[in-house]
Amino acid sequence: MEKADANKIKRTGAIFTAFGIAMIVVASYLYSFNLDSFWFEMLRVLLEPGGWFLGWTGLDFFLYRLGEITPDLNFYRAMVKSEIHFSSR
Q: Which of 43, 53, 58, 61 is within CB 3.0–4.6 Å of 16 for a Cys-Cys bond?
């Protein structure tokens, strides 16, 4: 279950980060047109902070949320590799 959660966190983080970077690239590309249209300005104003938000939120998934379950995953990996012997003394 923890491994599936870790994969979901990685996937979500990658998607958020990719969309954030894409939004920032599109906003930067719109600046090259030098159009003073209200709609282009509105689109740029929405894309820039939205891109930064998604990018940093995606990285938050990798840095903090994944870090919360990593100790459990490491413990479970160690337990799978361990050998337990019982003796009657």
A: 58
Q: What length is written for the chain?
A: 89
In whole angstroms, what is the distance from residue 50 CA to residue 47 CA?
Answer: 5
pTM: 0.74
Angle in degrees, 0-180, between the axes of helices 38-60 and 2-31, rounded to the nearest 10 = 150
Could you read off the pLDDT of 20-72 as tens digits, one per residue? Answer: 999 999 999 988 887 788 888 888 889 999 999 999 999 998 888 877 887 87
Phi, psi at residue 38, to the nearest 5°? -60, -40
Q: Residue 22, Cβ neighbours under 10 Å: how many? A: 14
DSSP state of 87: -
Residue type present at position 13:
G
Helices within the chain (DSSP H only): 2-31, 38-60, 66-81
